[in-house]
Design goal:
This protein has 372 residues and is of the alpha/beta class. The chain has three domains: 187 residues, P-loop containing nucleotide triphosphate hydrolases (Rossmann fold), CATH 3.40.50.300; 127 residues, no CATH class; 45 residues, no CATH class. It has 15 helices and eleven strands.
Length: 372
């Protein structure tokens, strides 16, 4: 159930001054944490989708993004807008923009590598719907990784000769060098699979294979649910590939009986770069950028200037439905810091402090590296 603050926020995002939805303006609304951001995002997305917009809602956290989408999925289905609303992380949003709405560079690169005819792209297929980006928390657009990093896409070149080459390199990694590997028959067989203009590129890839095979012991990864994974934000991803280290980590963990043969061999391929796309440019492909955040009032001038580069200059601050906060902070006097001489005094001081803080009849969280 929406409250007055959420309804007000939705109307502000929808630019209630204009009856025509195509008059939408870039706009960020501040709703304090715990006061209904998820509902505001979901209802706004439904209304925009019903007005024939494509809506992409991005969040820094894959877990939170999935949680919110699943919470509203039945409503999206009931209103018939499931195909027009997507929840994703920044990385997944780039994937959507580049490959589902743009040119599939992976397929094109794969065709070129194997000397196959490439399929022409019909520019008339581009959707005429208004493309709306909804940002869940302004920090998504302000993170240093967002502005300093890029989305790197690769295509996988697969062949039995490539699979055998990677296994050969792994088995002989301690004795092989670049010269002996490049002159080996198994490497030459792999190189000759490709047209002449691709062969120097494949040779470079084979050099990278040996380098990564020798360094796999220092490679940082996680084995999760029988897959080689990497930490991303607040979760882990099995879709990330780190050069050929991922493939050799797969062979290593297969030998250790931690992943299945199918999962191991799925990573044995030549990973060819299709280019890089700046994360910072991704929002510019959308017609409108809307946002709901709990930290708008705390942004400094530099952060506001970054948002302004995306044409986000209109801000609304929604008051709390719970009235003024009555937070009570300690550390206002030296008495709020205590140093205990030993464990016995530590526990005694801790118990006394808990009893003191309980007197106002408030809830308390106790954070400690050790309590026992």
């Amino acid at each position: 159930m929406t409250d007055a603050a959420q309804i007000l926020s939705i109307w502000c995002l929808l630019n209630f001054e204009h009856q025509e939805y195509r008059k939408l303006k870039n706009h960020f609304v501040e709703i304090l944490t715990g006061e209904g951001k998820s509902i505001t995002l979901g209802v706004t997305g439904i209304i925009l989708a019903m007005l024939d917009c494509n809506v992409m809602c991005i969040c820094y956290s894959e877990y939170l993004s999935s949680r919110d989408y699943n919470a509203f999925k039945s409503m999206f289905d009931d209103f018939g807008v499931s195909e027009s609303i997507k929840y994703s992380t920044l990385k997944d949003a780039c994937e959507e923009v580049l490959y589902n709405r743009g040119v599939d560079t992976r397929s094109l690169t794969n065709d070129i590598a194997w000397d196959r005819k490439t399929k022409c792209v019909d520019s008339d297929e581009v959707s005429e719907k208004v493309q709306v980006l909804i940002v869940d928390e302004a920090d998504v657009l302000l993170d240093k990784n967002f502005h300093g990093d890029s989305f790197r896409s690769c295509t996988s070149l697969r062949h039995t000769s490539i699979t055998e080459l990677l296994k050969y390199i792994w088995e002989h990694r301690d004795t092989l060098d670049q010269s002996s590997l490049s002159e080996s028959s198994i490497a030459q067989t792999c190189i000759n699979l490709f047209p002449a203009d691709m062969q120097p590129i494949i040779s470079k890839q084979i050099d990278s294979m040996l380098r990564d095979a020798k360094n796999v012991e220092t490679h940082d990864y996680i084995v999760w649910e029988g897959k080689i994974c990497y930490k991303e934000m607040d979760g882990i991803s099995s879709r990330t590939v780190s050069g050929y280290s991922t493939a050799f980590a797969g062979i290593k963990e297969y030998e250790n009986n931690r992943i299945e043969k199918e999962a191991m061999e799925g990573g044995l391929c030549i990973s060819l770069s299709c280019g890089q796309s700046s994360y910072a440019e991704m929002p510019n492909v959308f017609d409108v950028i809307l946002g709901v955040t709990g930290t708008l009032s705390s942004l400094n001038q530099n952060e506001k200037a970054i948002l302004s580069q995306y044409g986000i200059d209109q801000f609304t601050f929604v008051p709390s439905v719970y009235g003024n906060k009555r937070l009570m902070f300690a550390c206002d006097s030296p008495q709020d810091v205590m140093i205990s001489d030993d464990d016995a005094n530590f526990h005694l001081d801790l118990r006394n402090e808990i009893n003191t803080r309980r007197k106002p009849k408030r809830c308390h969280d106790i954070l400690s590296r050790r309590l026992l």
